[in-house]
Amino acid sequence: MEKTVLIAGKELPDGANFASGAVTSARRTLITKNRTDENALPPNGTLSADWNRPSALSARSLVLRALNEFGRLDESVFIFDEQHFSGKFDSLENATENVHLIEELVSSYQYLSMEVVMRTQKKSGEKNPLRLVYVYKSSPSLLECVLKGEKKPSAKPSSPFLSAAASAFKAYAENVAASFVESETVFPLLVQCDFDNPLYSNDNALATWLFGYIATLESLRKPLLPKQKLTWVKAGTKSPGGFGFFG
């Protein structure tokens, strides 16, 4: 039976490759789309829905849309692609823009995470657990570039504002995972894909790896230890404690 997944954080059209990877991994997929882009069409076999990031009500509507379409939700994948956001939040000139960044890149993921857990647990039980996945695609910060003496870094450094939002995403994901570390119905998974990772520039391959990795987790004879559940998994890793796809 196909699994169902809600993908949020990298809206269509930019999230099309990740969504395609989900579909080819036997997922019935719903992904968020850019409300202002008329060309934000979903790939074949994919559903899409608007997500007004600053709105808690929009987060609720998005989750209800997924549940109405699928009847259940097996997985929810939240993507924070730091390099992807760098163009939009390169530099903020006033307090109003900074508030906008907080709403777009900090509050939004928190609203949606809470709605996913609350709404799905009304329908889910032990036979249909929720896999809560946080994917952090990192980018070098200005601090890292200065400390390494990189005058011409290979990746555009994140602004101080964006670096702070990324840190907030990671901290929130870690503590949500900690809150469910003993749960029998919600299973957290933390994934980090650094800029020098071969999967960083190939979202289709990243998605294919992710859902394959989830299948590996579900086939384990013994459940992961709490410490393992709270560790960021390097994208490309074959199995817990194993080697990556690329050595």
Salient structural properties:
single chain; 247 residues; seven-stranded parallel β-sheet; 8 helices; 7 strands; 42% helix
Task: Write up this protein.
This protein is of the alpha/beta class and 247 residues long. It is 42% helix and 19% strand. The chain is built from 8 helices and 7 strands. The chain has helices spanning 16-24, 56-70, 82-86, 95-121, 142-148, 160-179, 203-218, 226-229, and strands at 3-12, 27-33, 46-50, 75-81, 130-137, 186-193, 233-234. Strand 1 (3-12), helix 1 and strand 2 (27-33) form a beta-alpha-beta unit. Helix 1 runs parallel beside helix 7 and helix 2 (56-70) runs parallel beside helix 4. The chain is globular. Residues 243-247 have low confidence and may be disordered.
Task: Draw up the topology in text.
Layout (H helix, E strand, L loop, with lengths): L2 E10 L3 H9 L2 E7 L12 E5 L5 H15 L4 E7 H5 L8 H27 L8 E8 L4 H7 L11 H20 L6 E8 L9 H16 L7 H4 L3 E2 L13
Parallel strand pairs: 1-2, 1-4, 2-3, 4-5, 5-6, 6-7
Helix pairs in contact: 1-7, 2-4, 4-6
Outline:
The chain is of the alpha/beta class. The protein has helices at 16-24, 56-70, 82-86, 95-121, 142-148, 160-179, 203-218, 226-229, and strands at 3-12, 27-33, 46-50, 75-81, 130-137, 186-193, 233-234.
Gyration radius, in Å: 17 Å
Major beta sheet, specifics? 7 strands, parallel
- Helical/strand content category: alpha/beta
Give the fraction of residues assigned to helices.
40-55%
Q: How many H/I helical runs?
A: 8
Please provide the ordered H/E string of secondary-structure elements. Answer: EHEEHEHHEHHEHHE
In the predicted model, the low-confidence regions spanning at least 5 consecutive residues are: 243-247
State the separation between the terminal residues, measured CA to CA: 33 Å
Mean pLDDT: 88
Shape: globular
Q: Which percent range describes the beta-strand content? A: 15-25%
Oligomer category: single chain
Widest β-sheet, arrangement of strands:
3-2-1-4-5-6-7
Find the count of extended strands (DSSP E, 2+ residues). 7
